[in-house]
């Protein structure tokens, strides 16, 4: 059962989520839970469920608010495995007796020569190379369950694009929150000007990275599994006045936006406190699909969407070559509070500079003089509809009853209008003809 994705909420009505006060919520093994409830019934009728895993098979914690027995649930302590993982790392890297390093992909454990025997029938990677060890995402099997880790890795072009942006913005420290391949890439290619720190739910990184660059972490509730790692992380946040830190995140697309935004706020606050800076949001890069724009902007209007299409190497639909979106390319974009004019998109890869927008946009995104912007969101070339007063997807048809362009012919106008969002201002409850922001 997928209860918690944003799209489900939109369809099924109003499943809300309470995450601000989460440290007071009962805990599952993945930290404080989130409180889910229906808008018309209120939090008392809601339930607490795991912040990280969106499937009961992956984390079975699910307790209705009214069944919460404080003694039973509130003070439950879960065993922290971080210490054990770190002990395995120490042994793995200790070369006093054995130098060779191996990995069992079946059991997901690093091994030395004398550990190999019980794994002889398993899928083994013997004698890991230095390059493998420098970036474990080069050989670890991605955990690509969409209701859990949803581990999809950037392709090389995306990594190079991000590197270019970070250079241009003169970033000197980066937090890779749920971005292990980016972390691996940057620590190997950019270490003389950029320090990277990885925050991820995947405990396997314990084996390859020490506490100076990795913390086992849940970004949906800002939870560190290990206190020692949290302290090291706080040290990493401390910057000199000449340095700049950027927070980069690529969460699973099934994650709700509210808890992530909450975490971004908490981390910004912590960063400012540690550095004795006035309140200001951190520069953030957030990779997410273009169709989530409304949810991100509803919570945080400072985030704008950049036209760059982000590709993954191990996801069929989320690449330019994927079958589902082949015509329009990957639907994955970069959302950021950094002014879009500061980002340079690669001209040889389907992008151009639009002098009127004063930023780079996709080649197919033609500037509309009436809307005064390059309007496309999804990679198609939009056309301007004079009746709607805005640009729309090319295959939309203007409906005389709805007074707007719609996707489906023969739709039920009453039902359709009730659910729609205005394409000009993004709000619900009216459509373009009645929008106060309409220009033409
Ligand atoms: C879509 S992948 C992003 C990887 C990125 N594209 C890269 O190549 O570096 C999501 C990553 O976030 C991690 N993750 C998933 N849920 C998380 C959570 N609740 N907290 C922290 N990390 C999480 C996964 O383990 C995975 O590494
Ligand atoms: Zn859990
Ligand atoms: Zn094994
Ligand atoms: Zn333009
Ligand atoms: Zn237009
Ligand atoms: Zn129209
Ligand atoms: Zn409007």
Automatic annotation (TrEMBL):
Chain ranges of the CTCHY-type domain = 349-413
Localisation per UniProt entry: Cytoplasm
Record-level Gene Ontology MF annotations: rRNA (adenine-N6-)-methyltransferase activity; zinc ion binding
**Primary location class:** cytoplasm
Pfam families per UniProt:
N6-adenineMlase (PF10237)
Q: Cellular component per GO? A: cytoplasm; nucleolus
Q: Which UniProt keywords apply?
A: Cytoplasm, Metal-binding, Methyltransferase, Transferase, Zinc, Zinc-finger
Tell me the protein's name. Answer: CTCHY-type domain-containing protein
Which organism was this protein described from? Glossina morsitans morsitans
The organism's taxonomic lineage, starting at the top: Eukaryota, Metazoa, Ecdysozoa, Arthropoda, Hexapoda
């Amino acid at each position: 059962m997928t209860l918690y994705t944003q799209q489900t909420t939109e369809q099924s009505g109003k499943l809300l989520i309470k995450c601000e006060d989460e440290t007071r919520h009962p805990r599952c093994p993945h930290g404080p839970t989130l409180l889910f409830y229906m808008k018309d019934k209120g939090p008392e009728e809601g339930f607490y469920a795991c912040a990280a895993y969106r499937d009961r098979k992956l984390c079975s914690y699910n307790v209705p608010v009214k069944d919460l027995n404080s003694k039973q649930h509130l003070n439950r302590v879960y065993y922290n495995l971080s210490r054990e993982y770190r002990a395995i790392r120490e042994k793995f890297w200790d070369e006093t007796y054995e130098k060779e390093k191996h990995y069992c992909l079946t059991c997901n454990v690093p091994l030395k020569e004398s550990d190999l025997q019980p794994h002889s029938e398993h899928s083994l990677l013997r004698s890991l190379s230095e390059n493998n060890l420098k970036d474990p995402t080069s050989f670890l099997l991605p955990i690509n369950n969409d209701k859990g880790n949803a581990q999809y890795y950037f392709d090389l072009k995306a990594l190079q694009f991000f590197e270019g942006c970070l250079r241009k913005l003169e970033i000197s420290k980066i937090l890779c929150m749920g971005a292990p391949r980016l972390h691996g890439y940057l620590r190997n290619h950019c270490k003389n000007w950029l320090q990277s720190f990885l925050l991820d739910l995947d405990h396997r990184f314990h084996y390859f990275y020490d506490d100076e660059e990795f913390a086992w972490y849940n970004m949906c509730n800002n939870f560190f599994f290990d206190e020692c790692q949290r302290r090291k992380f706080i040290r990493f946040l401390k910057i000199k006045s000449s340095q700049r830190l950027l927070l980069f995140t690529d969460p699973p697309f099934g994650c709700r936006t509210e808890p992530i935004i909450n975490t971004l706020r908490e981390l910004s606050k912590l960063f400012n406190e540690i550095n004795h800076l006035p309140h200001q949001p951190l520069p953030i890069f957030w990779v997410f699909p273009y169709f989530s724009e409304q949810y991100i902007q509803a919570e945080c209007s400072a985030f704008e969407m950049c036209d760059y299409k982000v590709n993954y190497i191990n996801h069929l639909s989320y690449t330019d070559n994927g079958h589902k979106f082949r015509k329009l390319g990957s639907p994955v974009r970069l959302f950021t509070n950094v002014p879009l004019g500061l980002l340079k998109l690669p001209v040889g890869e389907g992008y151009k500079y639009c002098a009127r927008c004063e930023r780079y946009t996709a080649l197919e995104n033609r500037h509309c003089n009436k809307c005064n912007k390059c309007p496309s969101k999804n990679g198609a070339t939009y056309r301007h509809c004079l009746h709607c007063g805005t640009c729309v997807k090319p295959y939309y048809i203007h409906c005389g009853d709805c007074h707007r362009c719609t996707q489906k012919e023969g739709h039920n106008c009453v039902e359709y209008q009730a659910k729609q969002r205005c394409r000009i201002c993004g709000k619900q409850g009216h459509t373009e003809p009645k929008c106060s922001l309409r220009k033409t």
